[in-house]
Design brief:
Shape of chain A: elongated
CATH topology of the largest domain in chain A: Spore Coat Polysaccharide Biosynthesis Protein SpsA, Chain A
Number of strands of chain A: 13
CATH architecture of the largest domain in chain A: Alpha-Beta Complex
Strand order of the largest sheet of chain A: 9-8-10-11-12-13
Largest interface: A-B, 32 and 32 residues
Oligomer: homodimer
Largest sheet of chain A: 6 strands, parallel
Helix content of chain A: 25-40%
CATH class of the largest domain in chain A: Alpha Beta
Distance between the termini of chain A: 60 Å
Order of helices and strands of chain A: HEEEEHEHEHEHHHEHEHEHEHHEHE
Chain lengths: 395, 395
């Protein structure tokens, strides 16, 4: 028998946290489709999620319904699906969308490779959409591929930052509590629905501040900044040579560590592993050559890995400019190839930039160049601006 | 006698809008220090504002109190002061800050040239801070430079986007309504204060969505994006020649108009006027020369105007690269001077970037260059990234 709940947070602790919830967001509500699981103690309940996503987003002030508004070019609902998919114990996810948006939703699922998603048509109200989602999960539907769950999480499609621990609390509460009418007065219409029509009880669970609902245009801005910040926490530095530990590439790496002290700077010795760990930022340092061989290798690995399906990956190809080894004009001509590379890899959601670091003999000036280089790298990673791809920046 | 209210929104209409306010934000509350103004009918009441700003910002998750958190390098409270200063009929503004932050607040007022601001020490609670602010406005204080107002607006220091019309509603309601106890239950502790200790009545006014309170870190992100968007609505294009209407600078201007259809693109014929109208984005097109004479003139005008005190001003110096007129190497050397210029003007909050637009003979390729140039200009203006100043971008 699978141990439940996962992660070790015992029912007693979860129960304690669930009390005293004045003014809390209703992050998600859970309903028990059958009472059978409730007596099963610590067995893993079969959990499914229903996402009502038929809304028109009137308050957003933009023509696109908010669940389809793009954040870093990917629709908001895809982030919410990603957050639910990561939770291994959610077996099925049902999304209720309007007939009009059904095809668009299918494209989103395909493009961003979401798994285990079923679509139903939404109703004219949020309640009807939820009902349609629950119907799809009920056993008595003909040709139903879905397994009947014990617990169903109803989650807003426009709350992309839901964490596993909150979902766990919801499910634990659904299994454990008879729940109280007291909580009802602080809930939303969703709780009314559950109580009135399903003849079951409902419980309000406190969410984290990150669980807020994307409602206004400013929330889209905030969501974009949060996502950009999350994927900018790690930078991997790849070198074209490993022999000389004293070389200028390592000095740039040290400068990055000093200047960006909130960011984890990793050496790209085991690239496959770093890609697997979902690092979205790469600095490719070319000391020995002025071509893009090393960068090309990295780009090939990234393209094969599918890392950039969900988030734009930043690659900065760094060259050192010492005015001596190669004539400047010829070097520049080589370097301008980056514009073509950048156009190509943009199609795969990889943002490629070039950085030329001036390499003077004077030690103090070199320090200044490297610091400037670190500033530019930080700016490019932070903004992830596709309008500047293929540019050759100079530090 | 001055006509009241300004802007022509009559009391009847304002009154109608004030009803039915369930769940509305308490944007600002108003209290009548004396009843004398209330009977004066349509005369302009003497209005002051008190900003309690003694909070510690625990929920923000950052060490700086939220009212001092920087947005585009300027503290949040300065934006709120700016919003209140714009309202001509608010005569005095009193800010309550902790003794610890008194000096910092004085620096903010000086640096951003805020006028008519008085400082008082905040109390241990928000209520005491408001009380201290009101005391400063009362007549019986010794050495008080402030005039005793009829209406005092209490406004959160962390609501930077307050508009004149909402403040007008607040003041109109304070003058007009006896107000009802009914509204009390939807208010905050501030209303309790007014009712219990001042023996006056209070009224809740509905705010706009933009009036939201900066509470969490995500709200800082949202505020920054909103401000960036607001100051990116107009681009002024300055040319170094006016004779030939067919020249490539005008074609770039046309391209900007086509590509950035949500932005107002203005020709810089009357620069002084455009600066007065608070345009924060300039594209300086150099066709005749490869130096920065025209850009330098513009930078001088901007520095004299003080336009950049409140917001970073973007200047993009555009050169056309036709490979023929001047040898490439020499031209590049000239152009690299932009890095030094950029460092200098950054001290005055001007963000200078260079843009080199390739100028091929082939018409289709030229179109493509110009389009690429417009994309880069849009990206630079949108992001306002100080890490990339002095860069020479290539379209």
């Amino acid at each position: 028998m699978e141990s439940w709940p996962p992660g070790g947070s015992g029912p007693a602790e979860a129960g304690r946290r669930l009390r005293g919830l004045r003014g809390a967001d209703l992050a998600a509500s859970a309903s028990l489709l059958s009472g059978a699981g409730a007596e099963a103690g610590c067995s893993a309940p079969a959990v499914a999620a229903v996402l009502p996503a038929g809304g028109s987003g009137e308050r957003m002030g933009v023509p696109t319904p908010k669940q389809f508004c793009p954040i870093l070019e990917r629709p908001l609902i895809s982030y919410t699906l990603q957050a639910l998919e990561r939770v291994s114990w959610i077996k099925d996810i049902v999304v209720a969308v309007t007939g009009e948006n059904m095809e668009a939703m299918k494209c989103i699922i395909q493009r961003y490779q979401h798994k285990g998603i079923s679509l139903v048509e939404s109703g004219v109200t949020r309640h009807r959409s939820i009902f349609n989602g629950l119907k799809a999960l009920a056993e008595d539907q003909p040709n139903c591929r879905l397994s009947k769950p014990e617990v169903v999480i109803i989650h807003d499609a426009v709350r992309p930052f839901v964490e596993e621990d909150v979902l766990l609390k919801v499910v634990t509460a659904a299994k454990e509590h008879g729940c109280s009418d007291y909580d009802l007065e602080f809930g939303t219409e969703c709780l009314h629905l559950a109580l009135k029509y399903c003849h079951i009880k409902a419980k309000l669970i406190e969410g984290s501040p990150d669980l807020w609902k994307v409602t206004y245009k400013r929330d889209l801005y905030a969501a974009e900044s949060i996502i950009k910040e999350r994927i900018s926490q790690q930078i991997c530095v790849v070198m074209d040579t490993k022999e000389d530990e004293e070389h200028v590439g390592h000095r740039l790496e040290e400068m990055l560590k000093n200047e960006l002290n909130h960011v984890k700077v990793t050496s790209g010795r085991d690239l496959q592993q770093i890609i697997l760990e979902q690092c979205y930022n790469f600095v490719c340092v070319n000391v020995m050559t002025s071509d893009f061989e090393e960068t090309q290798k990295l780009l090939n690995m990234l393209e094969e890995s599918n890392l950039s399906i969900l988030y734009p990956v930043v690659v900065i190809s760094v060259q050192f400019l010492d005015y001596e080894s190669v004539p400047f004009g010829q070097k520049m001509e080589n370097l301008m190839q980056i514009r073509e590379f950048a156009k190509q890899v943009k199609k795969r959601n990889i943002l490629l930039y070039g950085l030329l670091v001036y390499y003077p003999q004077d030690e103090q000036k070199l320090q200044e160049s490297l610091r400037q280089g670190a500033t530019i790298i930080a700016a490019l990673i932070k903004e992830r601006n596709s309008g500047l791809i293929g540019q050759l920046l100079v530090a």
